[in-house]
What we know:
Chain A is an alpha/beta fold and 441 residues long. Chain A folds into three domains: 29-104 and 281-354, Ubiquitin-like (UB roll) (Roll), CATH 3.10.20.600; 113-278, 3-Layer(aba) Sandwich (Rossmann fold), CATH 3.40.50; 371-440, no CATH class. Chain A has helices at 122-131, 144-148, 172-179, 181-195, 209-219, 238-246, 266-278, 308-314, 371-375, 382-390, 394-399, 410-414, 421-440; strands at residues 25-27, 33-37, 47-48, 55-56, 61-64, 73-74, 79-88, 94-102, 158-163, 199-205, 225-229, 261-265, 284-290, 298-303, 322-327, 334-336, 349-354. Chain B has three domains: 36-89, 3-methyladenine DNA Glycosylase II, Chain A, domain 3; 99-192, Alpha-Beta Plaits (2-Layer Sandwich), CATH 3.30.70.20; 193-276, Alpha-Beta Plaits (2-Layer Sandwich). Chain B has ten helices and eight strands. In chain B, strands 1-4 form a two-stranded antiparallel ribbon. In chain B, strands 2-3 form a two-stranded antiparallel ribbon. In chain B, helix 2 packs across helix 3 and helix 2 packs antiparallel against helix 4 (78-89). The chains are: A alpha/beta (441), B alpha+beta (276).
Amino acid sequence: xxxxxxxxxxxxxxxxxxxxxxxxxxxxxxxxxxxxxxxxxxxxxxxxxxxxxxxxxxxxxxxxxxxxxxxxxxxxxxxxxxxxxxxxxxxxxxxxxxxxxxxxxxxxxxxxxxxxxxxxxxxxxxxxxxxxxxxxxxxxxxxxxxxxxxxxxxxxxxxxxxxxxxxxxxxxxxxxxxxxxxxxxxxxxxxxxxxxxxxxxxxxxxxxxxxxxxxxxxxxxxxxxxxxxxxxxxxxxxxxxxxxxxxxxxxxxxxxxxxxxxxxxxxxxxxxxxxxxxxxxxxxxxxxxxxxxxxxxxxxxxxxxxxxxxxxxxxxxxxxxxxxxxxxxxxxxxxxxxxxxxxxxxxxxxxxxxxxxxxxxxxxxxxxxxxxxxxxxxxxxxxxxxxxxxxxxxxxxxxxxxxxxxxxxxxxxxxxxxxxxxxxxxxxxxxxxxxxxxxxx
Amino acid sequence: xxxxxxxxxxxxxxxxxxxxxxxxxxxxxxxxxxxxxxxxxxxxxxxxxxxxxxxxxxxxxxxxxxxxxxxxxxxxxxxxxxxxxxxxxxxxxxxxxxxxxxxxxxxxxxxxxxxxxxxxxxxxxxxxxxxxxxxxxxxxxxxxxxxxxxxxxxxxxxxxxxxxxxxxxxxxxxxxxxxxxxxxxxxxxxxxxxxxxxxxxxxxxxxxxxxxxxxxxxxxxxxxxxxxxxxxxxxxxxxxxxxxxxxxxxxxxxxxxxxxxxxxxxxxxxxxxxxx
Lengths: 441, 276
């Protein structure tokens, strides 16, 4: 391969994508009961629109918010609302959720589609994406409609569709690009029209040749460029992707729009295509269930709100005693302690690691090797920020750019002393934000 | 010979000129220093704990010298330090500042509290709290990471075998560093004379508390009914003591069915409680 798009820093973890990369997407039947949290996205949580005892139709809006940065929430089954109450969610906290008993009918709420959605006016596309409750499916779950309106004075030149899927183990985006190529390309065109981008580029890591081939075959006739990225984590980080593909840098504390770019995940494009063509809200997504702790790893199309327990059971259950169950990939995912938590919009996989793989290490003293500095893709000095955080010197941590950390975890991964650098940097970030809000109030 | 004379003369001349310059500068730019500030700073404990409300001991010393802070402004030093400062300032030391000590309002250690997960991140309560809310079933109680012990500038705390922090009251100066550091807000400062504490902060209903902790407050209200001076009230599933009313009579201790309320030895009943 020649001319792969690259960026500075990053790490090469074991990818382990072979476990599921040849497994086609299976549709998982809807569970008997779904738990749909009203805060699945970045921004303000949605307010419930239904109450206990209500009967709901598939795709009906059950939560919405008037806040500018928020997303609507829809039910992924038809049936009866059993409760609107706090339930455990993937971040370990209880979140107000709507619990719905599935009547198995899948009786659809009215949905207005369009046969050729690309003909829709720009504002209409944005409205449909907003009404469908679409958020970034790459993991951060930022409301897509809010991202599509660029800040004042910024012109979007390039729309980058992120198909890098740099997280080890996960293959959901790869399978999506291979099996729903047409939807992804249509979604890319819709997003490009909605944000007014002049050029659309789909970026895929070079370790997905099949996805690259299929996307290239279809994208070429649609005036979309497909580029291959060097295989490196975190190639799919927003800022890293822009640097690699466009050789532009997003300013510190700034937005990609400030350098004329906008990044959306392939899953988001797929969801946008469904919303505009069929009027279908975001009620399902593709996830990867993988790891050496699960008997039959696979890629699934699951309803939002399906409990982890049901999905792991569908994948053959645990192979032996699980060491760790992680929502997402091994680098940025969140370890879970409760299998009743539901799949939400931003979760791209369930990773079950055996005790052998998920082994823990006690941190050793820092040997000042500066490997964390070498691999940091945003040019920070994690070792220094960690030290400031351990000594509660938040001002100094901020001076050293703690707030620019993208929390990719490369520093923690590479550290030969197994120090939990990212945990400390994250603590510094929360303390700095708190100090600022204290200061301004 | 000639060369060395020139060198001697030029260097000597230069030295004289510069020293004259330095003398003039020292006279002209000299800053008036209040010597009392230095003396007060030496009299203060010097740990910069911030309990007085100023940035550190130096800031408090400056404030006292300028008359912006009371002579007994250092709660850590107590009456002994106040008397020393009074001597320096030539003023009355005033009353001894009320001595406060930290109290940990949680008894749910490893033996009493249910574990819901295994945590293997850094041993810091603030990180534990943001990592899925820690490993204990109770989301209100002590996380057991020992951050309070870590931040204590007086070595007045330690972690016991049960994974709970213990305050050594003789060493505690009530600076409040641990109160600030605790992400669960389970540490409070109270007057040292109070010897009865409701050691629970859980706002969960009694049934849920029973599931996750053997010694958590179940809000049964028996202490509230028993208290002769209306010092205990139960709100939001939690009993709380109003220390201003408490006379340390210990009646609540006897009736608490889950032993959440703890009495401390060596703190007698307060007979003459001021009205109110």
